[in-house]
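Structure in, sequence out. Go:
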């Protein structure tokens, strides 16, 4: 329900309608000399106006209106009764949008037919044109004008830069009778639904502007992750912004870093909310962007909310941003309340068009801090928190969101008890927003370490690789080596050796042991004949891998990491540029990357210098080949007792991959001949495999 002051304003508008009929009642008289009663009869009009029956000689007399002097006295008296403290909907409108009494008067005149059915009928009667469906700017200017000289001033309040229009408290519509655009006098005036609801004392909708804005709820202070000095600085900035509109904080950090959480918590301390607008989504409809942001600004002021403009994706396309940036800056400068921005990285694109920007950096929590966040979110499950913090490096939002999702999944399955590593890990992976699958494919293995037959020195190196991946946080963070190693902390390893010696399988097994996903880079989607495209694709590979927190596998790496050549033409120069870029990006990459090659000599020496480990996978000897023949046979498979694995190992000098193919070939022989796998079938398969390799047996 509207408050008492809104009701008094509606009474005032009714008096203005009576005065309007006194002044312009001749417009209502038809050629026959009678009043138009097509939609609203004289009897109904008298009832709506609260006047007595009279003889229909003129419009004012027919309606029983008081004389003009008495009416003017009543209007002046009603105006004085409308003054009061700045509370309630109208008081907030006046303060938040800095409106004058005259502007409030026009706004209430425009809103009256939407707030009162009686006034809606009276307006239709008063403007005496039943083709008109909305009050026009000219009608409203005449309605509230105390004398003819103030009509022009009233019309000026419908200009594009006037507060009522600029803040979208009023909207102007073109008249179908005049075409587009209509003259200002004849443009229809509409008060948007959120403003009408506000005047009625209703709670505003939670989402407006095409579902692109929303009000954030404050986060409990104990869930807030931010250095105390950052929180204190933001408190001071927000207090100043609420009072004077400046400064405008730019909260810089990755997704889930807690930018909106921090802002909503600090704003709530002052009784304010946060209304968020995703500028990136609005950029998809640039022709409506200014209108949408203006609507959001109006809603923020109506709600006592900080207007938060998310520019994370908006500034990525500088060409589009440069087109809309000036309009955004102008809207922000005219906004009567606090405004904040978010960006994923420091950018000058925002401050180029928006004045008063102040950067606030929210860093990624350290591994130790993440461990504490996991422990708190999991209910002090220290062991699981330790495993998750070693496996993933994520933001506070991802920590709490993943645990919430995992608990919901557990409840859906009807399970109880503590959460497991895999359940939470899957929830984390679903939240790691990346597009790595567009340039790489996930690669996994069903094998485990019991299936591995390798020399002891190779196994020792592989165990060292796993140890370095596991204890990075201990060495770099707790022991302080991160400060000493400003770059080159990535774990890049080269696996070289003949085909089939297990290089790719070991990459998958290392990823499985570390609980990380392995993505095999698709070189066909990376290497391009167009100048600069290969570097662009490589940048995307590493950027998405960092976001996804996976292990990269460059199989047959010699095709990409080959040695630079002497420049004899433009092709050589561009090829060397690709390799130079790859060298730089590899050194910047902080994750784990595994390279496999059959031609180690083809790898550029500069790449080898950046490798943490180089592992040579030799051809297996006779004893190792015998073990490979044995482990390749599934344990539940019925096999002949005559199999001599030592004989197979000595006779066929082939790699583990070829042994795997031969065992599978023998299995199909056995299936086709309806017999068990025996020594003869394995030999037959080994001979066929050797011949396919070009070896005569």
């Amino acid at each position: 329900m509207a408050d008492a002051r809104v009701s008094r304003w509606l009474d005032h508008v009714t008096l203005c309608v009576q005065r309007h009929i006194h002044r312009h009642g001749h417009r209502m008289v038809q050629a026959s000399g009678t009043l138009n009663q097509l939609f609203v009869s004289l009897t109904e009009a008298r009832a709506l106006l609260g006047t007595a029956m009279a003889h229909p000689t003129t419009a004012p007399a027919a309606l029983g209106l008081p004389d003009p002097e008495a009416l003017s006295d009543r209007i002046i008296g009603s105006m004085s009764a409308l003054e009061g403290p700045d509370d309630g909907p109208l008081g907030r409108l006046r303060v938040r949008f800095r409106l004058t009494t005259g502007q409030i008067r026009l706004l209430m005149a425009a809103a009256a037919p939407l707030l009162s059915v009686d006034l809606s009928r009276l307006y239709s009667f008063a403007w005496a044109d039943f083709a008109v469906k909305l009050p026009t700017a000219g009608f409203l200017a005449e309605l509230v004008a105390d004398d003819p000289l103030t009509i022009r001033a009233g019309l000026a309040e419908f200009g594009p830069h006037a507060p009522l229009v600029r803040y979208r408290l009023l909207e102007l519509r073109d008249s179908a009778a005049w075409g587009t655009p209509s003259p200002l006098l004849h443009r229809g005036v509409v008060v948007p639904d959120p403003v009408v609801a506000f005047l009625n004392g209703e709670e505003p909708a939670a989402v407006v502007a095409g579902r692109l804005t929303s009000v954030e709820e404050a986060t409990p202070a104990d869930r807030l992750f931010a250095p105390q000095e950052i929180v204190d600085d933001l408190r001071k900035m927000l207090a100043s912004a609420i009072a004077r509109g400046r400064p405008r904080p730019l909260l810089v950090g990755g997704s889930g870093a807690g930018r909106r959480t921090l802002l909503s918590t600090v704003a709530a301390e002052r009784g304010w909310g946060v209304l968020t607008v995703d500028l990136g989504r609005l950029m998809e409809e640039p022709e409506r962007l200014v209108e949408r942001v203006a609507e959001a600004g109006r809603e923020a002021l109506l709600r006592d909310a900080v207007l938060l403009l998310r520019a994370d994706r908006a500034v990525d396309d500088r060409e589009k941003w440069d087109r809309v940036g000036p309009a955004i800056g102008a809207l922000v400068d005219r906004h009567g309340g606090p405004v904040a921005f978010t960006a994923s990285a420091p950018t000058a694109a925002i401050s180029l068009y928006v004045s008063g920007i102040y950067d606030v950096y929210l860093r990624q929590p350290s591994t130790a801090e993440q461990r504490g966040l996991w422990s708190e979110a999991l209910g002090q499950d220290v062991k699981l928190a330790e495993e998750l913090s070693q496996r993933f490096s994520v933001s506070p939002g991802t920590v709490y969101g993943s645990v919430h999702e995992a608990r919901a999944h557990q409840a859906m399955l009807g399970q109880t008890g503590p959460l497991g590593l895999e359940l939470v890990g899957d929830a984390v992976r679903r939240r790691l927003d990346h597009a790595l699958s567009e340039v790489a494919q996930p690669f996994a293995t069903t094998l485990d370490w019991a299936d591995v037959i390798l020399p002891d020195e190779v196994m020792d190196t592989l165990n060292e690789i796993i140890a370095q991946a596991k204890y990075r946080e201990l060495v770099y963070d707790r022991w302080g080596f991160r400060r000493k190693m400003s770059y080159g902390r990535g774990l890049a390893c080269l696996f070289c050796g003949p085909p089939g010696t297990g290089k790719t399988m070991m990459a998958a097994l290392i990823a499985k042991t570390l609980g990380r996903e392995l993505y095999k880079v698709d070189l066909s989607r990376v290497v391009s004949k167009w100048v600069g495209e290969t570097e662009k694709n490589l940048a995307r590979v590493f950027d998405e891998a960092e976001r996804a927190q996976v292990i990269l596998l460059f199989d047959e790496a010699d095709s990409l990491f080959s040695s630079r050549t002497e420049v004899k033409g433009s092709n050589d120069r561009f090829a060397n540029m690709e390799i130079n870029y790859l060298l730089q990006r590899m050194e910047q990459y902080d994750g784990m990357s595994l390279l496999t090659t059959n031609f180690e000599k083809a790898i550029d020496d500069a790449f080898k210098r950046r490798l943490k480990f180089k592992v040579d996978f030799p051809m297996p000897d006779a004893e190792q080949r015998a073990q490979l023949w044995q482990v390749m046979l599934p344990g539940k498979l019925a096999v002949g007792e005559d199999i001599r694995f030592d004989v197979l190992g000595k006779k066929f000098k082939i790699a583990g991959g070829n042994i795997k193919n031969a065992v599978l070939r023998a299995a199909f022989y056995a299936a086709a001949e309806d017999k068990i796998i025996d020594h003869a079938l394995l030999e037959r398969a080994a001979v066929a495999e050797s011949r396919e390799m070009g070896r005569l047996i």
